[in-house]
Amino acid sequence: MQTFTQYVAGSNIDTSLKQLLHTLVNTSKEISKAVSHGALAGVLGETEQQNVQGETQKKLDIITNDMLKNALDNDLTVKGIASEEEDYVVAANENGQYLVCFDPLDGSSNIDINSLVGTIFSVLPATEDELTEASFLQKGCNQVAAGYVLYGPSTMLALTTGNGVQMFTLHPETNEFMLTEAQVAIPVDTKEFAINMSNQRFWQPAMQTYINDLIKGDTGVRQKNFNMRWIAAMVGDVHRVLSRGGIFTYPADTKNPKKPFKLRLMYEANPMALLVEQSGGLASTGYENILDIQPQEIHQRVAVILGSSNEVETCLNYHAL
Ligand code: AFP
């Protein structure tokens, strides 16, 4: 079985990107430790601070954000970072070649119930001399690497550098990520969907009709029964989709007219869309490929529909009506 170090050494990417991937992955090992200590380390619970999006930050949101921020700041390949937990983009090293967007601990509402959480990251080229928010506003198709680390029963890394998706499992004794699945392939068909059903009455008609048809199962037009799963951490739901197929969606809703979408483009939707597409799946807003969206701001939110290609296409057909 190949270690992550051996895999990266043998891959056809720039030395600077190799270095950056090691920084991200080594920090995720530290995060994995911090998360697993939980109540023993007094790291559970909320702080009194809110992030720029008005969400109350958990202690671990801040701890993991600081861990990644410090590690990336010390990596000379990194020019700047953007994080869910930072109001503005943060400058790192003037001559860095990369910009890193990340959600240090996705699914943080799961922390206190000891359920799945993860780190999501997206790496973009730094193309401008001066670092501004505009430097980051690149389409998802520009990403040179994307991945997540899932802190679950085992800690797993899913990574793409544009040549398929590889999955690694952290060996608890050696503390090495081991390649446990090469060239992940999402099944094209599925009988499993993931959506927060409590928002049903706030969705647009296309999504209401699509989900209603899934629920009708073999008594409706789909003529097969579907099952539903919802982990409330995108990283967990996308991991299931990469592992055994499925469709995951957080669609537009009218629950809060000021916030029609929930998931963040730059550090949730884009990296997950690249992983899904690199595994043979599709990722769309319902009307546009996620990776083709021209971002307008760093904390922008989007509707997300991703997963098994035939099922996503079926869902998109409802949006085309
Ligand atoms: P938190 O990190 O604030 O818990 O949000 C997680 C998330 O952005 C995404 O990972 C989930 O898919 C989604 O929110 C869950 O949202 P609901 O709580 O509305 O189900």
Automatic annotation (TrEMBL):
Please give the chief subcellular localization of this protein: cytoplasm
Q: Name one GO molecular function term.
A: fructose 1,6-bisphosphate 1-phosphatase activity
- Positions of substrate binding: 106-109, 196, 262
Annotated Fructose-1-6-bisphosphatase class 1 C-terminal domain ranges read: 186-319
Its domain of life? Bacteria
Q: What class of enzyme is it?
A: hydrolase
Family statement drawn from the similarity comment of this UniProt entry:
Belongs to the FBPase class 1 family.
Q: What is this protein called?
A: Fructose-1,6-bisphosphatase class 1
The record lists the organism as: Parashewanella spongiae
Q: Upper lineage ranks?
A: Bacteria, Pseudomonadati, Pseudomonadota, Gammaproteobacteria, Alteromonadales
**Annotated gene:** fbp
